[in-house]
Amino acid sequence: VPEETRKDPCSITRDINTFIDLHPKVGKIRVATAKWNLSGNLVLSTMAGQAASPLEPFFGDLHDLYTTTGIVPQDTKLNQVWHKLIVDGVSTGSQWRLNNGIPSRPHNTEELKEEMRLYNPILTELTFALDPRFVIPAAELAHKKESSVQFAVADQQAAETILKNKTLNLFGKACKAEVTLRTDIVSDRDIMVLDVKPRKGRKVTYIHVYNDPSLGRQQALWRLRNLNLPANQAIVVTGDANLHHIRWSRGLPRTSAITDEIVEWLDQHHFILINKKGTPTHFPHDTEKHPSVIDLTWTNTLAAELDATQEWAIDHELTTGSDHTGIRWKYDPGQEMIENPLGVKYDMKKVKPADWTKTFNEEIERREKLLTPILANGVVSREQLDTAAEAFTEAMQVATEKVAK
User: Which residue range or ranges hold the Endonuclease/exonuclease/phosphatase domain (predicted)?
Assistant: First the structure.
């Protein structure tokens, strides 16, 4: 409301209370104070413990009581209880440069809202009581690299959760990895190839597929053989495979010649299946259909050495309405493995290779039953592989302990 048309707060308080007395439907609420803020808005406060909502239907009849103009103000609404939050250290965008080298302008409210909702799941469906904005004027942001953003929500539980998490994702200041979309390898709606190069560690190529078996030899997983994939490179293949095979499916499923060809190609290129046989990843909404294992992840030997699917897990909490469960992992080459954690030292300088080999072979023979499954022809389960690996490692350790004293 323009300053020259505003009535004084005392008369506003008196006149609105008189209006309430003349309109019994409003009830017995009383206006305690009337105040004009710096933006020219009139803020009315009721007595402690009283809600102003009974007065809301009459807002359109009150403008003559606080302004001398006959024009109805643009907006009149209840000031609901909200919870204001402030996020510090947000990049203003002023220091960024566009492709043509021209400095970028500071992020505006709409960009802040989009960024907050896009990268913070808790805010995706949340209504802002106060839209996010920088706490200092836009003119001053032009020379600041970072500033604080304030916003408010009406949902108290959501506000408490945000505070508990202590962080929001907003315009990352530094990327921990360089991610490159490899459209030079393939540009296809069913195949996406990404190179991930952390600041510390080797590059890994992640291939995400949506595989449609009805396409025969045009399905995504079969067509991988036609791609010019980087040689001597750690590679992870993952996605919705929509395939059934004895290697991963529950029971003894029907398979196809093309599925066998896909598995054979993966074997030839030293890819290892991460999924545990029989552990479902797909739970159809139609309860008459059985769960199945169709979301799969393979790593080649180089990716396995780098542990590029560290802490791989099926995570039901990542499922958001889909009948497929989420699968998560991390690639953190910054974690260092502690060698010889027990601090046991062996003097190998005086050990004859023949003595160690003889002792090692004896230990292998003692564990022959544990190693037989991986030496025989046929399908080997993940449990059998793990058991054999433990037996093999134990044989090496025991042999070393015996000959290197």
Answer: 206-327
